[in-house]
Write a structure and sequence with these properties.
- There is one protein chain.
- With about 325 residues, the chain is an alpha/beta fold.
- The protein has a single domain, classed as Alpha/Beta hydrolase fold, catalytic domain (Rossmann fold, 3-Layer(aba) Sandwich).
- The protein has 14 helices and eight strands.
- Helix 13 links the parallel strand 7 (about 285-290) and strand 8.
- The longest helix is centred in the first third of the chain and has 31 residues, at about 1-30.
- It is globular and about 45 Å long.
Amino acid sequence: MGFFILLVKSIIYGTITLVVGLSFAIGFIYFVIANDVPPNVWNTKEHVIDADISYSFVKVNGIRLNVGESGPKDGPLVILLHGFPETGLLSWHQQIPVLRKAGFHVVFPDMRGYNTSDKPEKMCDYDTGIIAKDIIELIDHFGHKKAFLVSHDWGAAVAWWVALLYPDRIEKMTIMNVAHPLVTQQMLKNNPKQLAKFWYFFFFNLPVIPEMKFERNDYALGKAILGTSSVPGVSFTEDSIPRYVQAWSQPNATQSMLNYYRAVFQCNAAERGKRLQEKPEVYVPTYFIWGKDDVVIGTEGIQPSMDLCVRGSKLLLLDQLIGFNTIFHKRCPKS
């Protein structure tokens, strides 16, 4: 029995050592060799900042968030959650006027760690369960019992946990190209191809190197991420890039943004896994917008995620991820 336990521990520790070693090797190669030249895909059209927008700092969950809002304050509340490495306004500038016109009170925070929102020092302060509480207290701040959630990338990962932990506070939610967290776990465990696409998660879990990589050459990596993950000439304008750089240049912003990735593996992972195994069902009607060309998450995560949405789900499958800009304008206010 003792030999068996020793063998199991050796396999576990050996696997961990191998993963960490490979991550350091990838990190070193990527830092020294990779040339992050931002692609020339920016739309030359001037980025128009909507005039009907106001900003304030809102205290939630012990921190302050930089929160933008637009539209009638007595309208139904919709909260837009951005992804990495974006901001609330720049991520959703095309959708805000449409939702406002549809009568929504639109709220778009810079999530904790981003732009001028507070940046807690501890890595585990970026656990998705903690960030989910930020959103609930944001709903409370605006005096609503329920809100609609629209989200993508890390914002969608947070939205899943808001729905799992506080289903009675969400009217409906829209998820863009992020599978249910239990489905994501299963895909990473059983699908080597999907695991390989998540290589950057391991790279971002390294100390120091990711920060240096992201910040060097005037944030060339951040610009490259925006350029290579979008349709050329559609998503980002040339004059929006300096605004992103300004947000990334805020004190401790890079480390805080990367802590989202680190907290996944290093903070409360066992507790989250147990919660997902025991109660994976989502009791919030969910609208999936999924781009088949997404470079990270494959379409095989769609149906299992929809199956866990026990109060109903709908799917809009697109050839290109960024195509949701046009479809969103036409359909989201009615969904």
